[in-house]
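Problem statement: downstream parser choked on a complex file, so we are re-checking the raw output for the zinc ion run. The parser issue turned out to be on our end (a line-ending mismatch), but while we're here, posting the original submission so the record is complete.
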Amino acid sequence: MLPKAETSHPSQPVSALEEDEARAGVVLPFALARDTRVILDGDTLVLGPKPLALGLREAQRRVATAGQENMRVTHLDAAAFDAALARVYDQVDTQEQDGVLFELADGTTGAGRQRDLLDAESDAPVIQLVNQLLRRAVTSGASDLHIEPYEDGLRARMRIDGFLQKIMDRSDVPTRRVVSRLKVMAGLDIAETRLPQDGRIPLTFGGRTIDTRVSSLPGNYGERIVLRILDRSSGLMPLSQLGLSNAQVALLHRLSALPNGIILATGPTGAGKTTTLYSLLQLANRDERNIVTVEDPIEYDLPGISQSQINAEIGMTFANGLRATLRQDPDVILVGEIRDGETASVAAQAALTGHLVFSSLHANGSVGAVVRLRDLGLDDFLIAATLRGVIAQRLLRRLCDTCSTTRAVTAAETAHFERHQIEPPAYVKDAVGCDECGGIGYSGRVGVFEMIEVGETLRAAIDRGENETALRAIAMQERESLFGQGLLEVAAGQTTLAETLRVVGDVA
Ligand SMILES: [Zn+2]
């Protein structure tokens, strides 16, 4: 039987429910213990290989709540951990505990109070399946979860470190009911299957709030559902961990201290633009400055900063939101994205009238932002007068520490380094693949950044309407480009040339 917690009033009779809650206080739910490789077994914390922080935090919370002291810690290998899991949860009907971690955070399926996913009751098979998929995505740190009906069944994939991984492919599941369940959770109209819809599912997981943006798209075998997972409580990555050079950090400090102008982050979706913009906001955040944001979606909660959510359906577009924030006496404004001429124009006007504007833009490289702003209809003189800096960024997969191998650099590789005025390394590393990295050869990612500061020379060239090649020659040296920065990571043994070519391409 499960180890029982001491309740605060041991002499009083407790109801079955209270007893249950007291017991739940010290033992982690089975699925959480299994997935995070953390078991709370009486006064012992049992850890499997690479235990996840999520399980450790929850164990810590429960131990503190139960007032337990003198905890021992045991480290086990995978086989011993599985044995411990089976022993500790022996008496528990694991089927019932499995896959019931998730629940709507607003309590609509509960008894009116907000209930944590970890306390949820068991449920119907379709609900369990959906919960398992959500739990798997969240515990794996996935950024997106795709649910895709196709001819022969239903496929689920999740995006980790920028790559989709299949987590389910089954022909024996009721596709339409799985999709309907997700649509109900997201507050979508389940009767409407011919039009795309979007909504959100607010979840809690072990006391953590996780927001998900849900979109549906009709297809020939049913509606595809994609969830974007926003773990706002995971906090923002500190600037020191972004992988910036000292010169780049100094530039970010300079840019964030400017009184006015436009600072842009460019790159494809998932390149970490939001993290960079939020880092700039935090640098700019001082008591004497009023900072407001217009975002879609709000990805992190920033203390001391007024954040607003875009809602195009009711006319709250980026351009309208930006106009509204200008009436709020701001000093610094974050506009999530400039994707149309109207927003670009309002942002430029805001910069001209003494505001510092941070935003993101879809463009290749840093100088590409100038070209993109021209495409959006801004005049050269207006771009020259307002643009102060551009940060282009990409995320490269980081080589797995456990399995990567070292070999001598080839002549072809040396040529890449020389072309970018970088001293070629004698050795580089190759990706291999092992159990630690799931056979991929890479684990985690490293950011590379190309930053330009618009000074006098570059400003004059933009004003003259110079083309991208000319602007690029003025703005940076080859080693400062995205590819050059990628090569520096290759030389440092952090990633491979193949990965750098795949993500950045050698444009020079
Ligand atoms: Zn490996």
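For whoever reads this later: Residues 1-25, 91-122 have pLDDT under 50 and may be disordered.
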